[in-house]
Specification:
The protein has 124 residues and is of the alpha+beta class. The chain is built from two helices and seven strands, in the order ββββαβαββ. Strands 1, 2, 3, 4, 5, 6 and 7 form a seven-stranded mixed sheet that branches. α2 links the parallel β5 and β6. The longest helix has 18 residues.
Length: 124
Amino acid sequence: MNKTITANNAPAAVGPYCHAKLCGNTLYTSGQLGLVPATGELPEGVEAQARQALENLKAVLEAGGMALSDVAKTTVFLADINDFAAINAIYAKYFVGEAPARSCVQVAALPKGALFEIEAIAVK
């Protein structure tokens, strides 16, 4: 049975999708931008956006009964692959110990002109 997850502490979806779907013991999140939940605005710079996106991801995971430690796989989307080292330093502060599997790609553009987006698959 699939359950739609909506996180009150994450920004609203910017399109026709939900924050996440819980399918059995696996949670599939939608991509999280660095939007500030209270304002719906992006902070300035990739590092601030990455931190906020990771906080938004945490909120979505918690709404689905999961934590960052339950994440098995992430996909990171960057507007500029040259930001790879900077976001790695921030990412490492959120995923301590055994990090999840990860893909990281540069994309032509992200919604709202964002510089960073992350999605995850978590398993209990």
